[in-house]
Structure formats: structure tokens, C-alpha cells
Amino acid sequence: xxxxxxxxxxxxxxxxxxxxxxxxxxxxxxxxxxxxxxxxxxxxxxxxxxxxxxxxxxxxxxxxxxxxxxxxxxxxxxxxxxxxxxxxxxxxxxxxxxxxxxxxxxxxxxxxxxxxxxxxxxxxxxxxxxxxxxxxxxxxxxxxxxxxxxxxxxxxxxxxxxxxxxxx
Length: 168
What we know:
Layout: H1 10-33, H2 53-72, H3 86-100, H4 105-108, E1 115-120, E2 123-128, H5 129-154, H6 161-165
Antiparallel strand pairs: 1-2
Helix pairs in contact: 1-2, 1-3, 1-5, 2-3, 2-5
């Protein structure tokens, strides 16, 4: 049995982002119970030179929607990166999942060799579709979701591995 480009991306990203939303729901309940300022957890970091929780969520979402856009040819929605509270971060995840759900297997499957070019500043990186999916997008999404999870655990939110894994 072959795993398709679609199956290796869209359903997996929807799942992990949904799990992240559920973890954020627990973080919101924790913040309310502890009477934390609504900006405390989203602004939290593991270390001073790392991105805060809010940016971890933004990057995970952007990477997932960027992968779908690059492979399918669908234009990804632009988000402003202004989320400062957990409900705002959950809304971003919901918008990202809604976008991912517009992609079909016919748009993604067969893109293993599609030329993908990404730009960060003046640096261009060239990929083939499969390389972009497995070597960039998948590890990047999981890295930022894992880091978001770690930031919340570091701050005392009572979450565990089952929350991270959810219901695959």
C-alpha cells in the first residue's frame, strides 16, 4: 500500500493542529483558574531567545497552509500574526484547519516532483514536492507544535502525551 502525498499531509496536519487547539483549551482553563493575565501564556517562552507560544502556533499554522498552497496551487489565506490571547490562537488554528479542508487528494497527490521555491528575505530554497513535505513541512509543523506544548508544560499547564497525540 502506498501513502499518498495528500494522506501524508492534510489529514495529519488537521489532526495535530486540532490536538494543539485542545491543548490550548486546557491552557485557557488553567489561566482562568490561576487568574493569569490573558497575555501571559501566549507571551511565554522556554528561553529568552526563543519565540513565544503565540509565534509557535502561528508558524505551525503557516507551515501547514503553506505546504497545501505550494502543492495544490490554491492560494493560502494571509493571517496578520496579531494573536495575543489563547482564544485568538485557537481562532487561527480553526481558520487554518478550514483552509486545509478545502484541499482535495486530486490537488495534492502526484506532486512528489513538483518544483517548490521558498523565499526568506533574499534566500531562495528549492525543493521537490516530496522533499518539501517530508524534509521541511512535516518536521517544521511538529517542531512548533511540540515547542508550544513544552512552553505550556513549563508553565504548569496539566497536559500530557495523550493530549499531544490526541486521537490519531
